[in-house]
Amino acid sequence: MAGPLSAVSSHVNAQVPGTIHEGGELGYALSVSFGAVMDNPDLVVTCVVGDGEAETGPTATSWHGHKYIDPVESGAVLPILHINGFKISERTIFGCMDDKEITELFTGYGYQVRIVADLADIDNDLAASMEWALREIKRIQQAARAGQPIVKPRWPVIVLRTPKGWTGPKKMHGELIEGSFHSHQVPLPNAKTDPEELSSLKHWLLSYKAHELFTKEGGPVKEILSVVPTDPHKKLGQRKEAINGYIPVKTPDWKQQAVGKGSQESCMKAVGRFLRETIKENPHTFRIFSPDELVSNKLDAVFDVTGRDFQWDIASRGQGGRVIEILSEHICQGMLQGYTLTGRTGLFPSYEAFLGIIHTMMVQYAKFTKMAVETKWREPHGSLNYIETSTWARQEHNGFSHQNPSFIGAILNLKPKLARVYLPPDANCFLSTVAHCLRAKNYVNLMVGSKQPTPVWLSPEEADQHCIAGASVWKFASVDDGVNPDV
């Protein structure tokens, strides 16, 4: 365990080898998993979703994530819905559904369902189900990669049913523990002072037969070590995607897309042309995750060289599109996180008013990045990049409904070691900023600007120097030659 105890998360964090998702806030594991397998054709991510997390809105939409996975260019996610029936103190929705209801629901989502519920032989049942799932994944991928893709393929999903707190204490103080919400997190909270609870804890821990699993010196016995893979690529904690898989993005010369000083230009139009060239330079390591606003945000120049990657739309299936458009900011954020933390680079453009939807997701990600940077064996990863338009400072056609500067404030509340906010004053400065942010590592970057035409104040060379400095005196806009500027 690295670092002082006060710095250790109560949930899984970046200090745990193989981890790409900060725990604590529920709803995002599945979307992060789908982002991780994009452009990773040989990767299978097994994502366990508890029936409590499955009640969240983001998870409810994430079940559709497979519809954005091209089996030619990307890997696969194997979801395992773990139903144990209880949350902290209430039954779960999925726990109150029978097998037929579960099967019909996930069939409607587009999955093949296999239910694992044989408690007497759970290990063999689950192992056989995993083998089945991997065969189905391979079948879908091989067909697509042979040029004969299955239309609307049904990816496997496993539903695992076990009692809450299974194999733990059965009862305590006259109340059920196993099979009830009393088993959540700390089933024996008073073991330090209550002899009955201490005795139950001892019986529980001895049931794992640790003396058969470990030597007297505390190491695993030979039988356990014999099944540990010798190939480091098969060890979860050493997967390059989660530790050192960063692929630097190739940014084209932004000055090729610059516009003349004194003209009028939409920052987003100019950026769209730059992103078009970025996609050409990075055909397998760069994606845009957009909540159905790419054209509205005037970034549609990218469609000159790519399309949308929506596999259940037959017209766009198999086109290798670099744009994921889904009307859920949560899913865009989750996929972007998974894509970024496994070594690639992404961009999330959105209106100002709606980035606040993923405020807490961004903060959880920043916590993960903080711990990752402080964990010496972790390699750097790309930055999380946002472009925000339709700002409070300018009335668009939507006006009041699309004004809410809260996301800027959320990022400014983070330490500068983790986050940056950019306010480029014109199109040329915006081009320089985007090129910089795509190359930057370990940050949360927010770039704010207008999609409407605005004056171009600086030449490409002047914009470059202005952005390098971070701020500069514009003498042409000063009444006293810049000696004592008001701003």
TrEMBL record:
<dbReference type="GO" id="GO:0016832">
    <property type="term" value="F:aldehyde-lyase activity"/>
</dbReference>
<dbReference type="InterPro" id="IPR029061">
    <property type="entry name" value="THDP-binding"/>
</dbReference>
<dbReference type="GO" id="GO:0005975">
    <property type="term" value="P:carbohydrate metabolic process"/>
</dbReference>
<dbReference type="InterPro" id="IPR018970">
    <property type="entry name" value="Xul5P/Fru6P_PKetolase_N"/>
</dbReference>
<dbReference type="InterPro" id="IPR018969">
    <property type="entry name" value="Xul5P/Fru6P_PKetolase_C"/>
</dbReference>
<dbReference type="InterPro" id="IPR019789">
    <property type="entry name" value="Xul5P/Fru6P_PKetolase_ThDP_BS"/>
</dbReference>
<protein>
    <submittedName>
        <fullName>XFP N-terminal domain-containing protein</fullName>
    </submittedName>
</protein>
<keyword id="KW-0786">Thiamine pyrophosphate</keyword>
<dbReference type="Pfam" id="PF09363">
    <property type="entry name" value="XFP_C"/>
</dbReference>
<feature type="domain" description="Xylulose 5-phosphate/Fructose 6-phosphate phosphoketolase C-terminal">
    <location>
        <begin position="451"/>
        <end position="487"/>
    </location>
</feature>
<dbReference type="Pfam" id="PF03894">
    <property type="entry name" value="XFP"/>
</dbReference>
<feature type="domain" description="Xylulose 5-phosphate/Fructose 6-phosphate phosphoketolase N-terminal">
    <location>
        <begin position="8"/>
        <end position="246"/>
    </location>
</feature>
<dbReference type="InterPro" id="IPR005593">
    <property type="entry name" value="Xul5P/Fru6P_PKetolase"/>
</dbReference>
<dbReference type="Pfam" id="PF09364">
    <property type="entry name" value="XFP_N"/>
</dbReference>
<dbReference type="InterPro" id="IPR019790">
    <property type="entry name" value="Xul5P/Fru6P_PKetolase_CS"/>
</dbReference>
